[in-house]
Amino acid sequence: MPATFGVIDLFAGPGGLGEGFASISDRGREPFDIGISVEKEASAHRTLTLRAFLREHRKQHGRLPEPFIDFHAGRISEPDWSVIDPTSWLVAKTEARALELGKPAAGLAIDETIARLQRKFDETILIGGPPCQAYSLVGRARAKGKVDYVPENDSRHYLFREYIRVLDRLRPAAFVMENVKGMLSSTVESRLVFEMLMEDLSSLGIGRGHFYELRAIRITDGKASLQEVVRPSDFVVRAEDFGVPQRRHRVIIVGIRSDIASGIGSASLKVSSGSRSVSDVIGNLPPLRAGLSRSPDSDHAWRDAVVSSAKQMAESFQNGVMPHLEGQFSELAKTFETMRVPPRSSSTLPRGYGTTNDPLLQWLENAELEAVAQHETRGHMSSDLGRYMFSATFGRLHGYSPKANEFPAEISPDHRNWHSGVFSDRFRVQIADQPSTTVTSHISKDGHYFIHPDAVQCRSLTVREAARLQTFPDDYLFLGNRTEQYVQVGNAVPPFLARQIAQLLHKVIG
Questions:
Q1: What average pLDDT does the structure give for the chain?
Q2: φ and ψ at 336, to 5 degrees?
Q3: Which helix (H) or strand (E) holds 238?
Q4: What distance in Å separates the CA atoms of residue 135 and residue 180, rounded to the nearest whole number?
Q5: What is the model's pLDDT at position 133?
Q6: 8-52 pLDDT, tens per residue?
Q7: Where in the chain are the domains?
Q8: Could you give the angle at which helices 326-338 and 382-398 cross, rounded to 10 degrees?
Q9: Which pick of 115, 229, 408, 489 has the fewest CB atoms within 10 Å?
Q10: Hey, is 220 helix, strand or coil?
């Protein structure tokens, strides 16, 4: 009988990496079984637990529970899952653990799980990645602004050592470690963090027999394989090369235990090739309008605001600056004056939902669902609606998001440094026929970096749109408030990418 692997998922977030592994089916059986997933942030842990519950319920009953369908559709408040299916809820509570790695309680729980998994499964797998804030370029830039910030005292730099501790204790058949590209250049005590990580990984097995073959995921002629590493940048995986509609580049290190590494050279996987775009995954979702912040919000007020902005820009472009845009905004003004105002939220399923032959949409859509969830807009200042409108129109015509120096003066923000270069892409539209830029937790802020490509909607992306760009299935609900939901989506590994990594790994060691 083929091997079954117990999985430990550390720093799990809302569960994107684990979702990819848990989704694999091989001849009617699931080779990867998540034994424990660890996440300290409360809302992400709630999401993780609900997903574990749904996964177990579906395994036992073949479909989603009816109360979840109603909750997903917004018809009822969240029910007590322990009453709906006590057995599946107990499994979920055992799997999804709210623990802070590096603390004694987490270490004890993980060590107990290691012993349990080693008794239950043929082999084990370790997946996950330490928090990226201290490694990322943005995180380091923000940290420099803190007067008392000392990198050596930032515990996040050293959380990968807890991953190493678990790896050494577990001795799994393989591991997958994911982090941001900034990890390659981050330094502590004048040493590269990545260099320290490689030393730790390479030292595993010394004096104990088996070591780990460290490999990078590379694509050649449409097939992914695990290859030897020449330079650190070889570990960078481009999500868009795997059919993810997002330019997301991350460091992914795969380690195979040396006693089972004989299959590395011959294993390959045909990836979900072909560039996928923003419109491929969010273009069929119901159109929405933004809310108005700092002023009374209503359909009438929204119409007045967008008509005024469109007319203002049409007049601005009559002066000879970008004259090709004048007609665009004149037409937009007419559209806004006569159109039916879209709602701020919609749960209406797209036409033909759940019947597509598109592999990516098949992954996202679930015919059991009766609604689209978490597709509602936030509020924006009326002045920002004009900037969103301009960015979307410019992006559609030029194929890129406008920089600060390409904004008309009439709608430029009154920032002292607007033309200094610091805010050059303060407003970034996602281009409809291209993969999106990297979805990050910053989407939880004002939304300026994640503008919808439709100028008529002139708004930032909803949680569901961001989740689709991250390739989370539509039945994946993010719990917590909306800000927390955005953070969870932005911090996750795209499950569609994780699934292909799991498939490749299974070919090597399965």
A1: 90
A2: -65, -35
A3: strand 236-238
A4: 7
A5: 54
A6: 999 999 999 999 999 998 888 899 999 999 999 999 999 999 999
A7: 5-277+492-509, 278-480
A8: 130
A9: 115
A10: strand
Interatomic CA distance for residues 384 and 168, integer angstroms: 51
Other C-beta atoms lying within 10 Å of the C-beta of residue 476: 27
From the list 472, 502, 359, the residue with the least C-alpha distance to 31 is 502
Other CB atoms within 10 A of residue 70 CB: 15
B/e letters for 41-66, b = 16+ CB within 10 Å, e = fewer, are bebbbbbbbbbbbbbbbbeeeeebbe
Residue 484: strand, helix, or coil: helix
What is the pLDDT, as a whole number, of residue 280? 97
CATH number of 5-277+492-509: 3.40.50.150
Cβ atoms 218, 181 nearer than 8 A: no
In DSSP notation, 118-159 reads: HHHSSEEEEEE---STTTSHHHHHHHHTSTT--GGG-GGGGT
Closest CA to 184 of 138, 136, 127: 136
Residues counted in the chain: 510
Contact 48, 349 (CB under 8 A): no
Residue 117 to residue 374: CA distance in whole angstroms: 36
* CA 298/CA 388 separation, integer angstroms: 19
User: CA-CA distance, 77 to 137, in Å (whole number)?
Assistant: 40
Q: Where are the beta strands (DSSP E) in 330-381?
A: 379-380
In single-letter form, the type of residue at position 487 comes to V
Other Cβ atoms less than 10 A from the Cβ of 471: the count is 31
- Of the chain, the percentage scoring pLDDT greater than 90 comes to 69
* Sign (positive or negative) of CA dihedral 236, 241, 247, 252: negative
Q: pLDDT tens for residues 312-359? A: 888 888 766 676 787 899 999 999 999 999 999 999 999 999 999 999
The token duo for 420 is 């200094």
User: Which residue's structure tokens are 């399923």?
Assistant: 349
User: Which H or E element spans position 251?
Assistant: strand 249-257
- In 11-77, at which residue ranges do the beta strands (DSSP E only) sit? 32-38
Assess contact for 127 and 170: CB atoms under 8 A.
no
Q: Which residues of the chain have pLDDT under 50?
A: none
**Neighbouring residues of 196: CB distance < 8 A, sequence distance ≥ 6:** 188
| Amino acid 135: pLDDT | 52
Report the C-alpha gap between 240 and 246 in whole angstroms.
Answer: 6
The reported pTM is 0.93
**Sequence letter at residue 292:** L
Contact 494, 16 (CB under 8 A): yes
Query: Which residue has tokens 């007067």?
Result: 147
